[in-house]
Amino acid sequence: MDLRLAALLIGITLSTVDSSALNLALPSLAAHFHSHAGDVQWASTLYLVGSALAFLPLSGLAGRVGTVRVYRASLISFSMISFILALSPNLAVLYLLRFLQGGAGAGIVGLVPGMTAATFPERRGWALGMVAGAVAAGTMMGPPLGGFMVDWFGWRSIFFINLPFGLAAFLLSGRLTELRGVGLREGLRRAIRAPRFLLALLATVCFFAQSFGSNLLWPFYLEARGMTPSRVGLAMLLPPVLLMILGPLAGRLSDRVGYERVSWLGSAVLALASWTQGITGRVVPGLAGIGIGRALFQAANNAAVLSQAPLETEAVASGLLSMARVAGQGVGSLLAGSMWGALEHHGARHAFLVSNLVLGAIAVLAGVLILSRRRVGTMGRHPE
């Protein structure tokens, strides 16, 4: 494997493993600090808040001082904060450090897509597919790794394991390609005047809304039908496994036939999978179809977003891509949770049907936005 790609994959895996592994340590944190679940949950929430607030400022800073410099500083900061987190004397300190670590994580997650596309311009679909696969792998690895570490070494070990991975990514990252940038304000001004770029971002929001909405529905529906939480967790491994395996292949396909074609196909598969599982009540076709749809859509659409970014806004565009992901996750979780809460009194089957019809329509909207990009001129691809 190219060492430059390894530096990016280790960095993105580091942040996803950390987030998913910590959830397994929350009960131990509550017991250690004589607190309860509602309190310790802030350790996860504040990390997300810190990330959301830092994506754009760090992207703008990276455009000014250098993306490689900001990425490497974020890796070191993330790792050092992890070390200090393991020594937290109380929850107040832990909350503050998690907020700061979220900001450092934004410098990793927010820059990796753009740096990947810039480092591998001729194979950006494939490289971004590798990134999507690494995210899926990190998400899957986190819970079992976190459970093992907590059982054998206690909750503090969750934070210590970040050190070797952060150091490895730092040592390998010196030869990454810089992203051009004009600063946050000018970058945003150019971005909002590039309609193809904005349409690609909106398609990203729709994709993550559909994906996270589906993730929320499956546990409610399956447990209502009598499946145990452990079996639900195993069933929900299917989509990330498919994304991890098929993501690079779909990305390579998009390099050959075009990002719009492959991402549109992904949106169609997502819509069909949502509607099929909603109408039939059978979850296995939905799990498989949504996993395949995610693999087809994610790398190709990310490549489309970054290829349509106005010149000299690549760093800000990478941050905006991460913001679109977070926005979509929030919309999907809120929408699916609200629909389930409003409809479950009619029965789980009815709530699952209606919710999937809506989520399938969101996937269709993503496809419409992709088709709309073809009808819009290539505005914004020149410096101003």
TrEMBL record:
One of its GO terms (cellular component) is membrane. The keyword DNA-binding does not apply. The chain crosses the membrane at residues 45-63, 75-97, 103-120, 127-146, 158-176, 197-220, 232-250, 262-279, 350-371. Keywords: Membrane, Transmembrane, Transmembrane helix, Transport. Residues 4-375 form the Major facilitator superfamily (MFS) profile domain. One of its GO terms (molecular function) is transmembrane transporter activity. Its main location: membrane. This is MFS transporter. The keyword Transmembrane applies. It is a multi-pass membrane protein. The lineage of its organism: Bacteria, Pseudomonadati, Thermodesulfobacteriota, Desulfuromonadia, Geobacterales. It is found in: Membrane. Signal peptide: none annotated. PROSITE patterns: MFS. It holds the Pfam family MFS_1.
